[in-house]
Design brief:
Layout (H helix, E strand, L loop, with lengths): L4 E3 L2 E4 L4 E6 L10 E6 L6 E6 L5 E3 L7 E6 L4 E6 L8 E7 L2 E3 L2 E3 L10 E6 L1
Parallel strand pairs: 2-12
Antiparallel strand pairs: 1-3, 3-8, 4-5, 4-9, 5-6, 7-8, 9-12, 10-11
Length: 124
C-alpha cells in the first residue's frame, strides 16, 4: 500500500500554533480527497479538516476558524495549520486519503491509507 508520513507535531502552550505536514513518496495528493484526523486516549477518532479533489475545504466545528488545511501539489504535501491551540486539541494527528463523509463526520476504513501520526500536546 501507499505510505503517508505525518510530521510537525510537538508540545506548545495554549494559544500557540503548529503546522502539521503529510507527505508521501508514492501517493499523489493532487485530485484526491484528504483529511486530517485526531485521536486522544480514551476518545473516539475525529476528523477535523478535509480538502477535496477540487480544493474545497471543510472543518469540524471544534476547529473551524482556528485550523486551516491546504495542499501544495508541487511538494505533494498536505498541511494543517493550527492556531490558537487549546488543551482539548491534544491528540495524535494523522492524515488519511479519501475518507467518507456522512452525517457531518468523516470516516476511514481498511482500504483507506493513513499516516503513522504525529503527537500534538497543548498545555494550559
Amino acid at each position: 500500500g501507499f505510505q503517508l508520513v505525518d510530521s510537525g507535531g510537538g508540545s506548545v502552550q495554549a494559544g500557540g500554533s503548529l503546522t502539521l505536514s503529510c507527505t508521501s513518496s508514492d501517493f499523489i495528493f493532487e485530485g484526491q480527497d484528504v483529511a486530517w484526523f485526531r485521536q486522544a486516549p480514551g476518545k473516539e477518532r475525529e476528523g477535523v479538516a478535509a480538502i477535496d479533489n477540487k480544493g474545497m475545504t471543510k472543518y469540524a466545528a471544534s476547529v473551524k476558524g482556528r485550523f486551516t488545511i491546504s495542499r501544495d501539489s508541487a511538494k505533494n504535501t498536505i498541511y494543517l495549520q493550527m492556531n490558537d491551540l487549546k488543551p482539548e486539541d491534544t491528540a495524535m494527528y494523522f492524515c488519511a486519503t479519501n475518507p467518507a463523509f456522512c452525517g457531518g463526520k468523516w470516516y476511514i476504513f481498511e482500504d483507506n491509507y493513513w499516516g503513522q501520526g504525529t503527537q500534538v500536546t497543548v498545555s494550559s
